Amino acid sequence: MASLSYVSQSNSAWDNYLQQLKRVEPFLDDPLRQRLDFLRHPKRALIVDIPVEMDDGTIEHFEGFRVQHSLARGPGKGGIRFHPDVDLNEVMALSAWMTIKCAALNLPFGGAKGGVRVDPSSLSKRELERLTRRYAAEINLIIGPQKDIPAPDVGTTPQIMAWMMDTFSMNAGNTVTGVVTGKPVHLGGSLGRVHATGRGVFITGLEVAKEINLDISNARICVQGFGNVGSEAALLFQKNGAKVICIQDHSATLYQPNGIDVVKLMSYQKNHGGIKNYAPDDEVDKSKFWKLEAEIFIPAALEGVIDAEIAQTIQTKLILEGANGPTLAAADDIFASRNITVVPDVICNAGGVTVSYFEWVQDLSSFFWTEDEINLRMDKIMRDAINDIWNKSIQTQCSLRTAAYIVACERILIARIERGIYPG
Ligand code: NAD
Questions:
Q1: Which of 154, 284, 310, when mutated, tests ligand 1's pocket best, judged by the most ligand atoms within 8 Å of its CB?
Q2: CA 387–ligand 1 middle distance (angstroms)
Q3: What is the pLDDT of residues 337-378, one digit of tens each?
Q4: What is the gyration radius of the CA atoms in the chain, in angstroms?
Q5: Distance (Å, rounded) from C-alpha 202 to C-alpha 207?
Q6: Which of 368, 361, 294, 339 is nearest to 77 (CA)?
Q7: Which terminus of the chain faces fewer neighbouring Cβ atoms within 10 Å, N or C?
Q8: pLDDT tens sequence across 105-140
Q9: Under 8 Å CB-to-CB from 166, ≥6 apart: which residues?
């Protein structure tokens, strides 16, 4: 396998993805195995400079990226992250996970991801709009409803998607709603999109809990990240009888062993930008989070948070990966040996991309569905996918992650082989 000259960091998110991919190799037959290298090489990576005139008249430059990891099965699909730690390596890994995710769900998309190295909370609304529009204009070259369709991720919102859609449309000379998903509903967004990822975490969690005889109504749950994904997942589990005992976000770690009132905390954090000071007496040191005992842990913040040491000591039965890439490959091996089930990101948090797919279909056909239709269709796709992957993992005696990768890689590599290599 040829290594990539532009990837220098070991122990990076991309490295983690490569290790996950390696585990699939023994389960693939030739000629698919011989083509696995396609998934080790992102198809296209664009790095852009984003000059922004700040409110005080100075000009600041931000680094932006859009990576299309694979377009073998359809247009690229994947979110845009605004976060100070964004770099090419991270965006590459996130784009690769989108390739695997879309294929594991059998959605007709390839994988892509974008990001800007910025702390969006440090910008005014006008600065944020200028940054978004310039970024959208810079990646305009490679996005479009038939090419690559961005969506929200960490630090980006429906409003940011609206600015991206408007910028693309101004350049095209007509309104192109299908260029991004996760838009506000008035602009061709889909009902159900905002709740979709957390809902998918809940649905896949329920299905797997049944398989491992875990009673959700008596489960204690710890959630890391209380944004779009973590808060919705916590809410659904609580509504179904589970006790959410600990929530950690960037600002604090809240531990209430008798159960946190998720609805109240959601409304608090909307007004305060975080959970800090909601209940100061119940805040604990952040290192306590992974040491608590709970039937379910939901990492729903950033990648790479569960290392071998945490995997060795964590006291739990089930991990639901709301975030992308939260578990390092070394930790996966330990979970397998300790009989802890991990529902991997590529299936667990795929509710968002599933409803994004519905949004794209609705935009292209200019015909919109009800929220009930959307939830019913999403639930079916998610249930079928997790059940297929569960069965594959039983059949191959491997983890759910490797099973999901096997299902996905087979689909992608068959498409790749059938398409052939241009120019032939
Ligand atoms: P968000 O911006 O809405 O929320 C992120 C949350 O993580 C916030 O509560 C923040 O406080 C917390 N956080 C940030 N840094 C932290 C830290 N160091 N420790 C603890 N908490 C921290 O983002 P989101 O959309 O909920 O995305 C969360 C994860 O889910 C990401 O990995 C993202 O890629 C993944 N994901 C999101 C979607 C989606 O539809 N939003 C879909 C699939 C996957």
A1: 154
A2: 26
A3: 999 999 999 999 999 999 999 999 999 999 999 999 999 999
A4: 21
A5: 9
A6: 361
A7: C
A8: 999 999 999 999 999 999 999 999 999 999 999 999
A9: 133
